[in-house]
Amino acid sequence: MSDIVLETRGLTKRYGGVHALEDADFVLRKGEHVAVVGDNGAGKSTFVRQVTAVEQRTAGEIIFDGQPVHFAGPLDARQAGIETVFQTLALADDLDVPSNLFLGREIFKWKLGPFSWLDRKTMRDRTLEALKTTAVKIPNVDNPIRNMSGGQRQCVSIARTAAFASKLVIMDEPTAALGVQETAQVENIIRGLKDRGVPLILISHNLRQVFDLVDRIVVFRRGRIVANLRRDQTDGNDIVSYITGVKGGAENAA
């Protein structure tokens, strides 16, 4: 049985005449944490948007959990077991923390035709459990999200992803707007996912973070994958050389 969780073959996205992503061949194995790095506009977020079906690919294949997939949208990807933290957090400002954690997967006491009754106590209890597991500290989970700091909002989004992680987690710049303490908190969540054997794709500009957290580094440049390197067989200068184009071609990890 294959240990490959996600594979893309020739994944391509064009916007008119602009080639945002071209022939991306990518593999992620069970329990593996992989960083996707590159300059702004290199194709990193475009790659994630195709995998999660935020956008529909122009060409190529996506094989997830051993099966070719063609998700209609992000909800399909999530239902298949892909949890994602996007740069836009996809949180509902007017709802509290439990309502946001269970947004789209609410727990009901009962449903009868158009009528239903939410099981708010169960959702709140499970939210507190999820926050405890991920070490995210929110003083009052009953507060609407709009009353929270940017760091707290980001941590809620990441806790939601970690709590429901099943087959794959994708994080797109999860600490870009966070302070030192909140960044450390998110990195500990990522380590917890590693301990649980949950595979992760991490998009990050922070090379210190990348080298601290992942097993392998994939470099995008101008819409193409130009390097695929094991973390312990490369260094920051090497990665920067690929990002800037000093080094070219596609180098693959053994």
Describe the structure.
With 254 residues, this protein is α/β, with parallel strands linked by helices. Helix content is 32%, strand content 28%. The chain has a single domain (4-244), classed as Rossmann fold, CATH 3.40.50. A 6-stranded mixed sheet has the order 6-9-10-3-11-12, sandwiched between helices.
TL;DR?
The chain has 254 residues and is an alpha/beta fold. It has eight helices and twelve strands. It has a single domain, classed as Rossmann fold.
Low-confidence stretches: none
Overall strand count: 12
Give the number of helices.
8
The whole-angstrom Rg is: 19 Å
**Rounded average pLDDT:** 89
Work out the helicity level. 25-40%
What is the strand content?
25-35%
Structural key phrases:
about 250 residues, alpha/beta, six-stranded mixed beta sheet, four-stranded antiparallel beta sheet, 8 helices
SSE arrangement:
Blueprint: E1 4-15, E2 18-29, E3 33-37, H1 44-51, E4 59-64, E5 67-68, H2 74-80, E6 82-85, H3 97-101, E7 108-112, E8 115-118, H4 120-134, H5 150-164, E9 168-172, H6 180-195, E10 200-203, H7 207-213, E11 216-221, E12 224-230, H8 236-244
Parallel strand pairs: 3-10, 3-11, 6-9, 9-10
Antiparallel strand pairs: 1-2, 1-4, 4-5, 7-8, 11-12
Helix pairs in contact: 4-5, 5-6
